[in-house]
Amino acid sequence: MHLVLCAALLASTAELDAPLHAVRFVDRNEGWAAGADGVVWHTIDGGVSWERQPVATRGTIHSVQFITPYIGFMAGREEVQATGSSAGVLLTTRDGGLTWTRHARGMLPGLHAVHFFDDRQGLAVGAGNDRFPSGIHQTSDGGVSWQAVPGPAGQWRGATFTGPGAATLVGESSRVMTLRGQVLAPTEVDVPRGRIVHAVAQAGNTVVAVGQSGLILVSDDAGRKFSYASLPLPPELAGVCDFHGVAIHGDQICVVGNPGSFALISEDAGKTWAARATGQPTPLHAVTLLDATNGWAVGDLGTIVGTKNGGQTWTVLRGNCRPAILCISARGRNVPLDVVARLGGADDYRIASLVVAAPGDTDAKLSAAVRKAGGAASATFANFDAPAHLDAGERDDLVKHWNIAHSGKALEELTRRLTVALRVWQPDVVVVDFAGSPAESILVELIESAVRDAADAEQLLPARLDAAKVKKVYCLWDGPGAPHVIVPTSDLAQGQSETPRELAHRLTGLLGDGPALPKQRGLRLLQTTLPAGQGRGGVMDGIPHTPGSPARRSVDLSRADRKPDREMQTLNALAHSQHPIVGDPGTVLPRIQAALNKMPEEQGANAMTALAMQYARSGQWDLARETYQIAAERYAKEPAGLEALRWLVRYQSSSEARRRFELRQTIGLQRIEFTTITGEKEVYNNNSGVKPLAEGTSTHSTAVISDPVAARKWYQSAIALEPKIRAQGTLAAEDPALMLPLLAAKRQLGDADGGKGWIRRFIADQAGQAGDDAWRTCARQELWIAERNGPTPRFAAQCRKTSSRPMLDGKLDDKCWQDVVPVTLKPTGDEYATRVRYAYDDEYLYIGIEASHPEAGYRPAVERRTRDMDVDKFDRVEILLDLDRDYATYYRFRIDQRGAAAEDCWGDNSWNPKWYISSVSEKTGYTIEAAIKLSDLTGDPIPPGKAWAMNAVRIIPGKGIRSAGVPADVIPRPEGCGAMVFTDPGR
To answer: Across residues 799-824, what is the average pLDDT?
Structure first.
């Protein structure tokens, strides 16, 4: 007990409000509640007091089970920042929870439920991945090792187990299935499309499953057939309720969720229901019933409530917190994590984050990102997700898309959800997005109505929620004019080793790439209820909250007496400086090492990751490589160590990165210049910088040739990382996103057949069960390229060598385009038909694009073309070229319907290759001819039969995406690339 008490005393103030996702009691007095940040609370007095128990994870625990008072199991997940994926957490105890041992580290993807039938046999379910598609695992040695259960790909959120190999599972994409033996079968229920089914429980033949948008399903035949429960709620309230937890004991059923202000109770196995107040509004995530009278539920902000009369009345045992600030974002990538880090992590205000347009797997990633940034809680809305291309479309296109899932009343539903969210969280301040995209504009448009309705007592829904009195509403400001408030995000606060801005950048991998963060965050005040002239000096100005109050944490003693590290301040300044010293590893790296010697492991690992990411973002890949190398060696057991290894493998396997290094190391490179056609053949005089090529133009250049010795060392550096990757566990060692780059490096070293064994095993693993996923298609494509037997798994574009250059006039009538089979982008058969052709000679790669559109889609050509123009809001075609087929790094060329262009190498916009464009924009479509200097792409020869990986993606804002291969999205997906094969008719 002494050890447990010490651990509780050492808990940081942030951990005190960690969201709780699991609860279990072994009798009326002893129980456990667990959740985010690896927080585990233990009680021996029925929940009156709680003590912290240490465990070997900082992830989120979703499941707790005890088969005896001494033998217990926990399961959960850790979010992997570098990939946006998850890793499983499995903990066991044999001393009643005094100590917990972690098993299967690095072996399984994220877990949501675990159940042991004895101390040896168990089942665990959670997120499926490429290695374990079904997301179901079984063990016969107490969790030391696990075997995948075959089955279709699944993302499971909960399960109820009735025996070894027997369970009912629920999860994302409206799925409810039964497992019998090793066979998964669907149940007889039609869950509305797109909903997450969060939890399921069973007692005897009664099975109850609960989920988003008021979903409660009841079965009286052990889960073979379900019906919808008749709820004691008006439809407008039921539609905005998201149920997260369910427990059954005999005929007694209890359901909890968001809002957490009430629990739904049934005393007759689900035939009738009643709503009972819990005494607090915070969302609840899990519930347990020890017997027909005693139960407990847990949720956000560390909330724990208990009942002693079967749920008729509830007592708040722990919690009573609320956020001072609620950030409401249209998409996950918009979440102002820098603001959260400054006001929450540094200034100790409790902050909650809400995301409107969130795909099914966003909630876990959002929670991890917000908590790591210093926030308190997070939530997402159901059925308001939308394809990314709608961000650049029209408002009506987005509303039309949302209306499909909301019976034509999406905006009314969204306003209602915002209103309820304000009453649930009771914030003083609301921060919404800058009104840029349609989703952001709609959010700003509706927040005023939601704030008004939330404060109107007559508008209250019967959800036992108090009116919300929001005092100020801000929007993030990126428009003309000065913001009203500046949040300093580029300065180190007390006790911090990285700035809020760098911390936010480091966490972007969890929520998707977002816009570059400003050095300081500006906010504009949209509305306030404070007296005129008051509360305008800062976000919380005029709204006092002392440390330790419900909306503000106590001062964290673990950092209260630590001043900002001067060495880290210097390094942070260097990372943002444009001075040449930043690119000198000999100057910067010793400073980094000196700073790290003063820091705890986790703090140093995070600081290193932030610095390395900054260098990589700014195109200083040499310094990023050295910084990541330090992180990989020094912090091998920290998440940052694996993140560093992932970047290093991709970098050192990359032919594109190697070519950029070669070009920087070469002095006196001569570049060929196209000869401009004059007279009648001159084209596009209004597009300065476009120099059309005349057939037969005489040109000359000194090409950069690769140094074979240096090239071998480059790829050998990647191969040397393989043992370190394997030491991280099965998930990393069998990750195709890492293995395919390593196989690419081996091919570059002449080992053409060495990777076939792994590829064949990967393809065969779970064969016939997982379906056709992107990475297995990449693997099959690599076998096809090596053997050239049968049809290509994805597509194979022809890039034919030409002896006559095209004249770049945008007409595609040159000899080089004749008889070239175009790549047709899919889907086909509508007014956005798109075809792409490729050709090459010894000096250039040529691309021809034909794209149709309705007359309403016409846009005139740009008058002047400059580097890296903003093409995101226009109909455009993007060409991804992956020269070494590592399906990780690539060149990207982007050309829109106006002839504007941009390019990047592996996301780095500072890459500026030599290329030429001519475009023709007409009422019914546009055509593009482009010529790209091959020596800017590669110094290696291109013999006939050579194959690159390639994809062509057309993005039509508000209308859709066309692509040669899938997956494809607004954000590049190199794993969707097909093959581009070079041919020479003359040989």
So the answer is: 93
